[in-house]
Amino acid sequence: MRDIPPRYDDIGLVLSRFALATVFVSGGRHVWRHPEGPAQGAGSFLKRCRSAVPVLDRFTDPQLVRANAAVHVVAGAGLAAGLAPAVCATALAGTLVPTTLAAFPFWTQPEGPQRVRQQGDFLKNLALAGGLLAVALDRGRRSRRTFG
User: Fold this and answer.
1) What is the dihedral of CA 19, 129, 72, 8, to 10 degrees?
2) Cystine design at 78: which of 41, 88, 106, 118 (Cβ 3.0–4.6 Å)?
3) d(CA 88, CA 35)
4) Residue 66 main-chain phi, psi, to 5 deg
5) Closest CA to 92 of 108, 109, 79
6) N-to-C CA span, the chain
7) Which tens digits make up the pLDDT trace of 27-79?
């Protein structure tokens, strides 16, 4: 195969994957080290999940939060490295749904600054999910990509 210099759009794709990944690796590392706060915040959400999925009763809230954090770190690192980016992006998008619902239920908050803050964080996570879905669905260009 002949050597082809990387295309600028391929460099942009690599940089965008890296930017997405840093959010998950950084946040996942923090939650792994300090799961108590996120576990407490996710308590009512995890209680509802346990009623729908009884096997979750085997795990404590901090264990479930740490498992989610582990996926964020591992899949985020894989995404940053360009290792199976579609798989990593899909895993991250899948974990982003419960993370967002547990952490930012703005619809349960009364009008005021807390609700506005949670709604903003919810929308930021929605934007992250959109970026991850773009990576996961990037099938048309994969065959001609030379970098990343």
Assistant:
1) -30
2) 88
3) 22
4) -65, -35
5) 79
6) 17
7) 999 999 999 999 999 999 999 999 999 999 999 999 999 999 999 999 999 99
